[in-house]
Structure formats: structure tokens, C-alpha cells
Design brief:
This protein has about 80 residues and is of the alpha+beta class. The protein is built from 1 helix and 3 strands. Strands 2-1-3 form a 3-stranded antiparallel sheet, with helices on one face. The protein is globular, with a radius of gyration of 13 Å.
Length: about 80
């Protein structure tokens, strides 16, 4: 049986649930928005987002940062995207 995918903002039922971490298998509440862009695939103005709980913020930031993708990290309550 397939596990339902989590949407960016919410659980398996869609955006109705609280924002959850984008870390693999993590279902903790999101606290951070990691804003990124892959310049090989996206135009310079395009921004994509991952959400992170406190436990996964550093790991996800490093993953994006090493590749030169990370543009900024914003607290979820301050996110206006």
C-alpha cells in the first residue's frame, strides 16, 4: 500500500492540516521556511520552498546551501510568500 504524499502546507488530505516539516518521514510542525532556487532549472526570480521543524532546519539548510540553492530562511510566522 502506498503512503499518501504530504502537501507543502498540510497532511495527506491536502492543505487543511497544519504545515509540516519537509524532512523525509517527519511529521513535526513546521517552524521555518527555506526559500530556494535551482539556477539550472528555474528562472532567477522563481522561488521554491521547503518547510522545516527545528530538528531538521540545519540539515535541510546545509543540503540546499552546499548546492548553492538556498536563498533565505524565514520563520514560518513571518513568511509572507
Amino acid at each position: 500500500m502506498d503512503t499518501p504524499a504530504f502537501s507543502l502546507f498540510g497532511g495527506p488530505d491536502g492543505p487543511e492540516g497544519p504545515p509540516v516539516c519537509s524532512g523525509k518521514g517527519c511529521r513535526k510542525p513546521a517552524e521555518w521556511v527555506l526559500v530556494w532556487n535551482n539556477p539550472k532549472l528555474h528562472t532567477p526570480d522563481r522561488r521554491k520552498t521547503w518547510l522545516a521543524c527545528e530538528d531538521h532546519r540545519e540539515h535541510l539548510s546545509q543540503f540546499l546551501g552546499v548546492r548553492g540553492f538556498l536563498k533565505e530562511t524565514v520563520a514560518l510566522e513571518q513568511w509572507e510568500g
